[in-house]
Design goal:
Number of domains: 1
Radius of gyration: 19 Å
Largest sheet: none
Helix content: over 70%
Order of helices and strands: HHHHHH
Distance between the termini: 52 Å
Length: about 190
């Protein structure tokens, strides 16, 4: 079974994140919590699609790497766990992570061991998403001797991975620019 998303469908993976950014501007008591749930949902969908692509590639390629497979599963498992964790404590238990929405710098960070572990896995997922998966697939494809197989793997795996990475960067930079403009115009 081949599951390949086109550009429009990939952009739809970012829709919960964009909705979360919009909801964040309403300043209701649960705005931050709902935006956080939607952002983690979007990240989970994006990482799931990339994990599917790289694991499919690893299964079909001649170089089956167990370490690469484990490394691909770590961000997927983390974002699945983190989504259910955020959903449970936000929606089911209705515990808001912050006492209230604070505009401007936060007064305290309240970093504990759990926060450091979450930060570590977010950094790991970011490095895996932008660097490791794309590099491993590209290098493995370039090492193939069969030109026809190289081109087939590029079309099936490398091009969708590059497209997903570029769309992710574009959405991130776009949201950053739009929020900066909005902040300047608002003040």
């Amino acid at each position: 079974m081949k599951f390949k998303l086109n550009q429009g469908q990939i952009i739809l993976l970012f829709l919960p994140f964009i909705l979360g950014c919009i909801i964040l501007e309403f300043h209701y008591p649960l705005s931050f919590a709902i935006a956080n749930v939607l952002s983690v949902l979007s990240l989970g969908l994006i990482v799931s699609y990339q994990t599917y692509l790289v694991l499919s590639f690893n299964r079909l390629s001649d170089k089956k790497s167990t370490l690469f497979k484990i490394n691909a599963y770590i961000p997927f498992a983390f974002f699945c766990w983190y989504f259910f964790y955020i959903f449970y404590f936000t929606i089911v238990k209705t515990i808001v992570p912050h006492d209230g929405f604070v505009e401007g710098p936060l007064r305290t960070s309240n970093f504990n061991l759990k926060s450091w572990i979450i930060l570590f896995f977010v950094i790991h997922a970011t490095v895996t998403f932008y660097v490791i998966n794309n590099s491993f697939v590209a290098v493995t494809i370039n090492k193939l001797i069969d030109v026809k197989k190289q081109e087939e793997f590029r079309m099936l795996f490398l091009n969708p991975l590059k497209k997903l990475t570029w769309i992710a960067l574009s959405v991130f930079i776009g949201i950053l620019v739009l929020s900066s403009i909005y902040t300047i115009v608002k003040s």
